[in-house]
Design goal:
Strand order of the largest sheet: 5-6-7-8
Number of strands: 8
CATH architecture of the domain at 209-307: 3-Layer(aba) Sandwich
Largest sheet: 4 strands, mixed
CATH topology of the domain at 209-307: Endonuclease, Chain A
Order of helices and strands: HEEHEEHHHHHHHHEEEHHEHH
Structural class: alpha+beta
Radius of gyration: 41 Å
CATH superfamily of the domain at 209-307: VSR Endonuclease
Distance between the termini: 123 Å
CATH class of the domain at 209-307: Alpha Beta
C-alpha cells in the first residue's frame, strides 16, 4: 500500500508544471519616469478556477503626468523655499514651494521705511473705504444718463462727447448699474445700420465676387459667353448688394435658390428689397434655380435678355 502511494506521488511530481505559481505578469517601472515600480494585482476568477492578473502602466495618481512627465522639481518632496527646513504640502501630485503662511517670511514690504506724504496717505485711506478721491475725473451724471440711457449712444460715442476716457465711462456705468443687454444694443437702429454697411462691404469685396456659388457661376459664365456687359455683386444705395446689374438699362437680376429664399424671413427681405429698387427706378427680375434646371441656363438667360432687350 505504501508503495502505491509513493508511485502516485511520483507521478504527480512528474506532471507538475514547471511554471506553477509563476505568472508572466511582472512589475515594471512607472511610465511617468519617477523610478518607482508598479504593483501586480492578483484576484480570483469568478468561476473559482485560478487567478487573474492586472498590471497598470502607471502608479495610482501618476497617470496625470503622462509618459516621461516626471519633473523632480515639482513631483518630488521639496523643502520650503523660506528656509525653515520643513517639507511642503502636496496637492494634485505637486509639491508647493512654500508651507502655508511662509510665503512672506523674509520679504520686505515695498513701502517699509519710505515716507509717504499726507496727500498720498489721504488718497490711500479713501481708496480703502471705497470713496473716490477729489482729483479723480468728474463726470456730470445727468449728462451721462441722458446720453447712454435715454439716447442709447454707445460708450465710445459718450466718451467722445463728454471728453473723458472710455474706462471712466465704464466705471461710472458699473457703479450705478446703468447697463444694456446685448439684445437691446443689437436692436438699436444705429447698430443695425452699421451692420448693414459692414455686410454690404463684405459682399462687394473681391474675394466674395471672385468665388460665387454654382448657380451664380453658371449665370456669369453664360453672360460672359454672350459678351453682354454686366456687373456682378454690386452695392446699391449703401443698403443692398445685387447679384447682376445691367447698368445701361437699369435692370437688376437676382439669382435665387429655393432652399434659402423660400424662408419666410428671407422672402420678406427680398420683397422689401425689390420694392425699394423699383421705387428708385430699377427693374428687378428674379431667376430661380428650378427655372434653370427645367429650361437650361441658356434658355433661362435668353428669356431675361429678350424681355428687357439686353442683347
Amino acid at each position: 500500500m505504501a508503495r502505491v502511494i509513493a508511485i502516485t506521488n511520483q507521478k504527480h511530481n512528474i506532471y507538475t508544471p514547471h511554471n506553477k505559481g509563476v505568472t508572466k505578469f511582472k512589475s515594471h517601472p512607472c511610465l511617468c519616469g519617477c523610478g518607482e515600480m508598479v504593483v501586480v494585482h492578483k484576484y480570483p476568477k469568478k468561476d473559482g478556477r485560478g487567478y487573474g492578473y492586472l498590471v497598470n502602466s502607471f502608479i495610482r495618481g501618476h497617470g496625470k503626468r503622462g509618459v516621461d512627465g516626471y519633473d523632480k522639481e515639482i513631483h518630488s518632496p521639496r523643502l520650503c523655499a523660506c528656509g525653515c527646513g520643513n517639507i511642503t504640502n502636496k496637492n494634485g501630485g505637486r509639491f508647493y514651494r512654500f508651507l502655508k503662511g511662509h510665503e512672506n517670511v523674509g520679504r520686505v514690504p515695498w513701502n517699509k521705511g519710505r515716507h509717504l506724504s499726507e496727500s498720498s496717505r489721504a488718497k490711500m485711506s479713501l481708496a480703502k473705504r471705497g470713496i473716490e478721491p477729489k482729483n479723480k475725473v468728474k463726470v456730470d451724471l445727468s449728462v451721462l444718463y441722458n446720453l447712454y440711457v435715454d439716447k442709447k449712444l454707445n460708450i465710445s460715442e459718450v466718451s467722445r462727447l463728454i471728453n473723458v476716457s472710455e474706462d471712466v465711462i465704464k466705471n461710472r456705468l458699473r457703479k450705478f448699474g446703468w447697463s444694456r443687454t446685448t439684445k437691446e444694443s443689437c436692436s438699436l437702429p444705429r447698430f443695425k445700420n452699421k451692420m448693414r454697411h459692414i455686410r454690404v462691404k463684405v459682399l462687394s469685396s473681391n474675394p466674395v465676387v471672385e468665388s460665387p456659388n454654382k448657380l451664380e457661376k453658371l449665370v456669369y459664365d453664360e453672360l460672359s459667353n454672350r459678351k453682354i456687359y454686366y456687373e456682378k455683386q454690386v452695392p446699391l444705395f449703401d443698403k443692398f448688394v445685387v447679384d447682376v446689374l445691367f447698368p445701361r438699362k437699369k435692370v437688376v437680376l437676382e439669382i435665387f435658390g429655393k432652399y434659402w429664399h423660400n424662408n419666410p424671413k428671407i422672402k420678406k427681405k427680398d420683397f422689401s428689397k425689390k420694392k425699394y429698387l423699383e421705387k428708385c427706378g430699377y427693374r428687378v427680375e428674379e431667376l430661380w434655380d428650378y427655372q434653370i434646371k427645367s429650361l437650361g441656363v441658356v434658355s433661362a438667360i435668353g428669356n431675361v435678355l429678350n424681355k428687357y432687350n439686353l442683347v
